[in-house]
Amino acid sequence: MTNQPLGGNEMPRFAGPNTFMRLPTADSAAGLDAAFVGVPMDIGASWRSGTRFGPKAIRAESAMLRPYNMATGAAPFDSLNCADIGDVAINTFDLKDSVVRIANAYEAILSHDTVPMTMGGDHTLTLPILRAIARKHGAVGLVHVDAHADVNMQMFGEAIAHGTPFRRAYEEGLIDPARVWQVGLRGTGYTAEDFDEARGWGFQVVPAEEIWHKSLTPLAVLIRQAVGAGPVYVSFDIDSLDPAFAPGTGTPEIAGLTTMQAVELIRGLAGLEIVGCDLVEVSPPYDPSGNTALVAANLLYEMLCILPGVARR
Ligand code: MN
Ligand code: MN
Known about the structure:
Elements: E1 34-39, H1 54-61, E2 74-75, H2 76-79, E3 82-87, H3 95-110, E4 115-120, H4 126-137, E5 140-145, H5 165-171, E6 175-185, H6 197-201, E7 204-207, H7 208-211, H8 217-227, E8 231-237, H9 259-268, E9 273-280, H10 291-304, E10 311-312
Parallel strand pairs: 1-3, 1-4, 4-9, 5-6, 5-8, 6-7, 8-9
Antiparallel strand pairs: 2-10
Helix pairs in contact: 1-10, 3-4, 4-5, 8-9, 9-10
The structure holds manganese (II) ion (2 copies).
One manganese (II) ion (MN) binds at residues 123, 146, 148, 150, 237, 281.
């Protein structure tokens, strides 16, 4: 019998444990197919802070999620054993130490046969996760949904920050550039060529303007075919969505994805060999409605629904 989320007929949804979907907690990833993890960090952010409160808010909004995906038939808790293993104890006074702590925590998680499902936290956290992922799986494919490329050489002289993780991941050989897709990029750049350098490395870059007004189901098919077999990591920055849908984020950019496009894209990735997912950059203080965290909780659930081995009904 797999762990089940606590149902609304057992405990009112506004009560009970503040875990993802009110799943049971676990001390480690032992015996888990998927583990929900919080990385409550915002010291890598360059503009607004507040993502340290992201995991707590995502967990709170996830309390309304029910187990079955009515649109896709996915029944993740019928086949996967899931739990919330709590937060990584980052050092909020030291970003570099925090990166080491995150990598160590994910190495421990990945010593089990578990897919980590991360709630952020600013996007810096994806670098140490990819370090741990690559140690286990080798260079992985990557689907990166974001308003920003996050491939800066440095930020204020620092190599590690929320705008640099994918350059570092490329330099360190953590990702296979021929199997990397970046979707939703837009806004203003430091230089006119900001999105082009990574294309030279082999990344596929899909700017937001190319997918305005379109269903993302065909794009997902294209990505699935191009990424093909082999391990893939999915990194979803909530600022890929338009600020109308997700205002509670650190570096908002206008004219982004709709919530429907985000759902189409994630659902369309079913079939990939996904070895980890994150949902980052939720900054609750900038959205008193809670909607950003609600969208984030739902998107993380949609990612759970496309993991390998999920039952369908
Ligand atoms: Mn980002
Ligand atoms: Mn971003």
